[in-house]
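assembly run, all chains below
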Amino acid sequence: MAENFGILFQWLIFMGMAFVSIVASLLVITRKNPIHSALFMVLTLLCVAVLYILLYNPFIAIIQVIVYAGAIVMLIVFVIMLLDLETELRSKLKIVHSKVIGGFLAVLFLFGILYTVVAKPPTGQTGSYTTEKMGSNVQAVGEALFTDYVFPFEIAAILLTVAIIGAVILSKKRT
Amino acid sequence: MQVLYLLIETIVKCVVVFACLMLSVAYLTWLERKVLGHIQIRFGPNRCGPFGLLQPFSDGIKAFFKEDLVPGNSDKAIFVISPMIAIIAAISMFAVIPFGDQFTIPGTDWVVKLRIADIDIGLLYVFGIASLGEFGIVLGGWSSGNKYGLTGSLRAAAQMISYEVALGLSIVGVIILSQSLRLSEIVALQAGGFWHWNILYQPAAFVFFIICALAEINRTPFDMPESESELACGFNIEYSSMKFALFFMAEYAHMITVASVAVTLFLGGWQAPLPQLDFIPGVFWFAVKVFVLIFFFIWQRGTFPRLRYDQIMKFGWKVLFELTLVNIFITALIVLLKG
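ok done. output:
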């Protein structure tokens, strides 16, 4: 009985979080005020973090909260506050075809997601990293990152460094 | 039935911890005013009750009955939500702190562990919630529609981005030594006298952590977001009544939590300083250590002047960041060489 109760509880949480995250992500793209959009993005990210916890991976969940909800959205909010949005909105400055390009990219991503879900369903086979091991052990994540996936890891690090240097050079040029 | 008992136990613990935290917050405001008063050769609050002990309640009643103003130029929804974000984050951070050992309820075999949630990633949880709590301050200042408030919240955001990095890096040394992010395990490894405390193995990291923690809780010398003399209270300039009181309480609750994290990581948590003193409950030692750290926070507020804004940013990025990286490197090297 207690097990059924637990499964029911998990389903309820999953349904609630999925619903809230979808509604919040819709609000992200429909709000006029960019700060409100950023806040709804925090809500979306928090809901996704809860979904990670339901998948027995609290480490990824909390990293999501720290890195995305905490640091990156804070940076976005910081930039929005620094910009003078009123004049930007009044000048009617718009990228031409932005809606077409954005819509095309969105459909492309949708097909990507559908392809990964339909073509290769999660098999759920147990390897050397089982859910218990991955979920409770930060060490397992670290080992996987620094042994099997060390090349993508280093590539990501180089990409970030290049992006930072590029941002510094661009901001220097403008002044 | 087991689930029901667990639920009851958790609820009772939550209520007790919440009540203790709120009472501590109330008397922390009294302590701070009293100690600052004596540092500046004044008496501090001494009118309400003996030694001014009823002052926090008088302040609370006053805040409760004041008129609640919402400025016309403000973003009303966010203006109302931001103090709530601040206080919820500050209180929920305390959920993972182990504040004592376990005990068995007399007459049963039910063991009560003196911590609300003992999760694997407790340490990361604290930092995640702390970074969310900063939204309260940043949005509070922005939504007021006041230029001083906006300046305060911009400063808060910039300061947070630069100090979170050093704060996160300063504790990596402790994580390497204890090989766990679970706070109760970190405490258990420091058992058996003060010579096992992490502060003796990571003295530099302790200093960095305290400096970054002061920046994190926006206290002098890093109280840029609210600097009274230039921004007239900064981010909470438009807040009045209970909303102001919520920000105030959040600040002090955050201070207690940060002190508790420092105690847990570096000062042995609830462990007694000498093995002979183990008969005194761990809660007592925990409270004493937290009190010492908080006294230090108040003391240094009365001692140091506020840094200039660019000095704070320069110090965070060009000094603290590098020093914490060096600390991690040396710690990892020693651990590797020792095998």
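Chain A is about 80% helix and 0% strand.

The interface with chain B takes residues 2, 5, 33, 35-36, 39, 42, 58-59, 62-63, 65-66, 69-71, 74-75, 77-78, 81-82, 135-139 of chain A (CB under 8 Å).

not gonna interpret more than that til we talk
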